[in-house]
Amino acid sequence: MVRVNPGVLNEAPEKAGWSYDGIVAYSKICTHVGCPVALYEQHTHHLLCPCHQSTFDLADHCKVVFGPAARPLPQLPIAVDAEGYLIAQSDFLEPVGPTFWDMRK
Length: 105
Ligand code: FES
Prior knowledge:
Blueprint: E1 2-3, E2 23-26, E3 39-41, E4 46-48, E5 55-57, E6 63-66, E7 75-76, E8 78-80, E9 86-88
The protein binds FE2/S2 (inorganic) cluster.
Residues 30, 32-35, 49, 51-52, 54, 67-69 line the site of FE2/S2 (inorganic) cluster.
């Protein structure tokens, strides 16, 4: 979960309303082979996986901009409830983890 300036987020129409005031939530499990994606670079909005340097663009739905990962990090749709708590709107809508875990491929 990361909070950025809401203006930097490129909201795709199909994912409108999945963030709240610049707060976004993505799976931390790299889609390459499952290492924890943990390094965030604020100036570029990139998330870096330390294992094989896959780099994901947080401002653009965590699309892969470098490295061996084949697909973006799955996003968890979030919202704020009536009491002001961040909540998940649903489960992840895409498989979480390495692509080889997705038996549909
Ligand atoms: S596990 Fe993340 S780049 Fe390989």
